Amino acid sequence: MTDYRMCTRCVMDTSDPEITFDENGVCNHCHTYDRMVRQYVVDGEEGLREFQRIAEKIRRDGQGKQYDCIIGISGGVDSTYVAYQVKKYGLRPLAIHVDNGWDSELAVKNIEETLKRLNIDLYTEVLDWEEFKDLQAAFLKASTTDSEVPSDHAINAVLSRMAERIGVKYIILGTNVRTESHLPRAWSQGHQDWKYIRGLHRVFGTRPLKTFPHYGFFTYYRRMLTEKRVEILNYIGYNKGKALQILQDELGWRYYGGKHYESIYTRFYQGFILPEKFGFDKRRSHLSSLICSGEITREKALEELNIPTYSPSMQEEDREYVVKKLGFTEEAFSVLMKSTVKSYWDYPSYGHFMNRPFVLKLVPFVKKVISWFK
Question: Hey, what CATH class is 28-346 in?
């Protein structure tokens, strides 16, 4: 067994089984953060000018159309701040929300109030609950750490499909380097992998996925060529704390207690299932990125990690609600919590193909070709 160790710069630790440390005790995730900042983040006036240039192109390409870009909206900080910023830059977005059956009441209110004040149109894709419930239950039965993959896959599929439907090629995203760089592969993967999702469901599901939004291997790479996904927060000096304050002051937005906790299932999954069954606290990832970005100190992050993920009383309420809504008995759920831990690599996936030596050699060439078309 590997001896316990924590990064000397952030709070990532050996709960990530693939973590490595340099001679100073700094982890590979911090080095990845530094590399990605150099590669993707444009700071200060230069960043603002660069996004202004991008915004002008979006407006120009969207002339004559009802909308010139697509944004996803969950009710959380990042996506809501994206909505605020695209309006600030004079863009005409269509906001897309995917309702997977787990929206908290606060998330719904945040979305409605924000878009009303910003005068942004909303399209909501409501997933077939019986299908999605069966898929989520299948992931829990599969005993991997990837139970959020179905939601993320569906969101990406819906955004791309709607962009194609209305003839818009720009999708403005809330993903960003400063708050989302410490992402252990061992903690979750397969978000783009329809073969993995479909194959796992065939083993553990009980009904066909007739309407679930998805995309396959070739569609994914085709859309990489035809879509332009813009991570606006990498250009505007994104500071999560300041953004949160702006949203509260100007849009009447209300905080929900944790990253992605706008979803009841995500709150319970990240706050209970992941630490209890799989032995890691996803807050380490979020806090570590904020440490590297200078938003919080390492000492403050360690203090936060000593606090329960969320209140025990709410956790108990969520457990009863989630277990019942997914169709499990308490006894069956307890068995799932104790079942042998599996991983993405235990099931059929595109990842097995992509890891072949000849494919790995092709990847840099393919990326270069894609960059030529951007």
Answer: alpha beta
